[in-house]
Structures are given as structure tokens and as C-alpha cells.
Amino acid sequence: MPLLSCPLDQLSLLRVSGPQGADLLHAQLSQDFQHWPDEQARLAALLNPQGRMLADFIAVRLAPEQIGLLLDASIAAAALQRLRMFVLRLKCTLDDASAQWARYGLLGDTADDYPALLAPPTQPWGVRRLESGALLLRLPQAGSAVRCVLLTERDQAAQAALRAELAVLPALSPSEWALQDIRAGLPHLTAATQQLFVPQMLNFELIGGVNFKKGCYPGQEVVARSQYRGTLKRRMYAVSGPAAMQPGQELVHAADPGQPCGVVVNAAADAAGVWWALAELKIALAEQPGLHLGSAEGPELKLGALPYALTAPD
Predict the structure, then answer these.
(1) What residues form DSSP beta bridges with 58?
(2) Structural domain boundaries of the chain?
(3) Model pTM score
(4) Contact present, 42 and 133 (Cβ < 8 Å)
């Protein structure tokens, strides 16, 4: 397969600028931003005091005192407003830099499909700064494929040439990009799913989105209690079925048809027309047959596989 490319206009890029930007994020998000290598991206969540997720971010250093936060565009304005509430006297500012930074997705069968100019980082969440100043971030991926996000500044002439090269690459559809996230078990909140989940319900601690050794942040007590007291009763799974699925759509199980047993987090169709989704489900029912979309009479769904185990390593 040749290298494929697509614009990621469904994602926004928030920018945190100033010498204390990392301090703000460390105090408000589920991730450690005080011990953060420049060549690494970080997955993190913004929570309400009840531990429910308001937003998820992929954080990357844009410059020595600038941090970019990638997230779904449907929740960008709300997340920006929320984070601004906590700036107070910290020496930092926040804005939406989506108009200044172009976002692209790249997908190849292997790293060899990438030209030398775009040689990807060797590990997931690795970041490489190109000679032009653009940033290449490698994402987790199921199987042997290599998937990256490329961030380029629109007003930089050297990066304009890079964007011109991307324009001639074979196109990857937004639906196929979303499908790659689903296969990788990498969830994204949208406006339809805000405040529905604590991080563990979306396997966030399994994919590197929660640091349990850092200090307090909003919702931290709920997250810690779910982790250490064994109170977690819901997890995220991959499911598939014949009918279209949408974020926020309820799932029902035949064993308990009177109430929902889960929620669709993200969904996309493959080339054969089969719909795939990441869905938050009751653990007790997830692996039993009888899962349906919408109601007990709705289309039946099958449980798929995620590329990681649903139990934390010892």
C-alpha cells in the first residue's frame, strides 16, 4: 500500500502559550506534564469534579513555551473555555490555533512507505520535528501499519512545500481514519459523549492517558477509587454490526432489555459496509451474546478484539 494522506479537519488544535502552560495542564489534566520529554506526545483527559470526562487530548510541544492539544472539533470551544477558567495568575494563555496549524493523517503499511522527509518516529506517541519545523507524531496502531499525525504551520513557506507534496498522495477518507482509531482502541470524546465516562470506562489508563503518581487534579479521587478499590464495572470494547452507529447511541442486551447496557463512543463503516465501533459496556454482559443497537429488537452486534488486554499489567 502506498502512503495515504487525509486532512484532519474533524480535529481542532488548542494552543497553550507561556512559561507556565505545562503547570496549568499538570494541575487540570490526568497526565504528568512536569516530567515530559520533548520528543513524546501525551494522552490526557479533562474531568469534572465527579471524575467524568469533559475532553480528551493528544498533547504535543509546538515550541519551547507552546503546547498543542488535539481534540474533536465538536468539544473544542467548551474545553477551551473550561481550561481558561483555571489560568488565574499563571503565566500562560490559551487559544484555538486550528486556523494557524494544518492537521493531516498519514497511513502506511510499514515505516518504509514513508519518504525519508517524513520518516516516522520509531515508537507510538513519539514526535519528530522535521527540518521545515513541522511535527510528525506517531499514533498507536493495530497490526503492523504505521499511522502518524502531521502538524504544519500554514504561514511557513517551507511547510507549504510539504503540504504540496501531501496533496499528491493517494487520499485516505475520514471514515477510514476513524476506523483506524477504532481498530487501535483509541477513543475520542465528542459533544454527544461528554460527561458520560470516567477514564477507566474508556480504557484510558491502559493506553497511557492516566498517571496515578502525579498530584491532585479535578476528578482525581474518583479515578483513584475506581482503580484501587475494584469498583470498575464498565469497560470499552470493540463491536461490529450491519447498521449505522453514532456516538452517544445506547446499546441494550437481551439478558437485561429494560435498560441500556452501554453507549457507542466512536463508529465508522469499513469498505464492505460493516459498521465498527468502540462502545462502553457493562463488563458482566459484554462477552455474552445478545448485544443490540438501540433496543432489544435492534440490529445484533458482535464483540470484536482490541489490540491490548483489558487488565492492567502487574
Answers:
(1) 43, 70
(2) 4-184
(3) 0.95
(4) no
